[in-house]
Write a structure and sequence with these properties.
- It is built from 12 helices and no strands.
- It is an all-alpha fold.
- It folds into 2 domains: 85 residues, Orthogonal Bundle (Endonuclease Iii, domain 2); 102 residues, Endonuclease III, domain 1 (Orthogonal Bundle).
Length: 224
């Protein structure tokens, strides 16, 4: 089977069209739901809570936290222990509770309590890496320059042979050069849903994959 090495080749169009239709069958990610309110602060905080945490846990934790405090000033008024109770059982909840207070202090001191838009300013915030920065820009600000890449967006393009990368960050930089910009905004949503339900990390469901004919299954040792 031919291995496609570059995302600019013709198969990108049918693959993205098929996946965009396919993922409608499944539940949308919690960050997608939260982003519909166009609130950069809630997108930022929810994204931080979601790290190493399942979607349903993130959704409930975010809801509990925002019911008590939905702006930086209110979060700073909460005791760390109270934040811990509100966000439990997200992964590393004690560390995240402390870091949320640091981040909110940064927002108040440096940005008048508002989430900054620029890549440079976002990356200076506590606990904000490239994935979170891009999610905030893409879904919080509807910025077409945002290209959020998580573990699914790293794994699946490598299986497809579109990239040959070792980390999500490296994948982002390669895709910024090769992936047509019209696909950037939906890329994370589509590949996260697809990666959670079909192209899972171990033993993906290749037998029912709608893009199987386009995929050389690079690195797949066993499938279902």
């Amino acid at each position: 089977m031919k291995v496609y090495k570059f995302i600019g080749m013709p198969q990108i169009k049918p693959v993205m069209a098929i996946l965009k239709k396919e993922v409608r069958k499944f539940r949308e990610p919690i960050l997608t739901k939260i982003s519909k309110k166009r609130d950069p602060f809630k997108v930022l905080i929810s994204c931080i809570l979601s790290l190493r945490t399942k979607d349903n846990v993130t959704g409930l934790a975010s809801k509990r936290l925002f019911s008590k405090a939905d702006i930086p000033k209110k979060i700073l008024k909460l005791k760390t222990r109270e934040i811990e109770k509100l966000i439990y059982p997200v992964g590393f909840y004690k560390t995240k509770a402390k870091n949320l207070k640091i981040l909110c202090r940064q927002l108040l001191d440096n940005h008048k309590g508002k989430v900054p838009h620029s890549e440079e300013d976002l990356l200076k915030l506590k606990n904000v890496g490239r994935k979170t920065m891009n999610i905030v820009r893409t879904y919080g600000f509807d910025d077409p320059e945002g290209l959020a890449i998580d573990i699914h967006c790293f794994r699946i393009p490598n299986r497809l042979g579109w990239v040959k990368t070792k980390t999500p960050e490296e994948t982002e930089f390669v895709l910024r050069k090769t992936l047509p910009k019209k696909y950037w905004r939906d890329f994370n949503d589509i590949f996260v849903i697809f990666g959670q339900n079909i192209c899972v990390p171990v033993s993906p469901f290749c037998s029912k994959c709608p893009i199987s004919k386009y995929c050389p299954k690079i690195g797949v040792k066993r499938s279902r």
